[in-house]
Amino acid sequence: MAVAFNGMESLVVTFQAGAVTAGNFAAMSENDTVKDAPASTAPVGLVLNKRGEHAAVQIRGYVKCNYTGGTAPTLGWNQMVADGTGGLRLAGSGETGRVCLVVQMDTNSKTMGLFL
Q1: Mean per-residue pLDDT, 37-58
Q2: Nearest to 66 by CA among 25, 38, 9
Q3: Taking the C-alpha atoms of 49, 58, 92 and 96 in order, what is their torsion angle to the nearest 10 degrees?
Q4: What is the pLDDT, as a whole number, of residue 40?
Q5: Which is nearest to 95 in space by CA: 113, 81, 84, 112?
Q6: With b meaning 16 or more CB within 10 Å and e meaning fewer, what string describes 39-61?
Q7: At 4, is the pLDDT very low, low, confident or very high (cuts 50, 70, 90)?
Q8: Cα within 13 Å of Cα(11), Cβ side
Q9: Distance between alpha carbon 109 and the CA centroid of its chain, in Å?
Q10: For all residues of the chain together, what is the average pLDDT?
Q11: CA–CA dist 116, 114 (Å, integer)
């Protein structure tokens, strides 16, 4: 039997979009509008695609993404912030991140699978 998380409890929302890139994490920029998440901010979700002035953002469910930073997240619950380059990193002291459940880690490629 194979393990599969894709599609489980996923929620995708359409936002107005400023400067966003598909595959990057997004943050709120103004009412109803997202932008690429700057470093050290709690991500709203993962930008799946952008069409015109709108973006589809996955705000809940399973995603695979890159992580950065000197310390790798651990399996289980982690507080994550945007790294400013489209991925995530562990929240540092004094930073408020988003709590995510990390269920897969690949330290060689610096990727992880997590639930938003």
Answers
A1: 97
A2: 25
A3: 120
A4: 96
A5: 81
A6: ebbbbbbbbeebeeeebbbbeeb
A7: confident
A8: 8
A9: 17
A10: 95
A11: 6
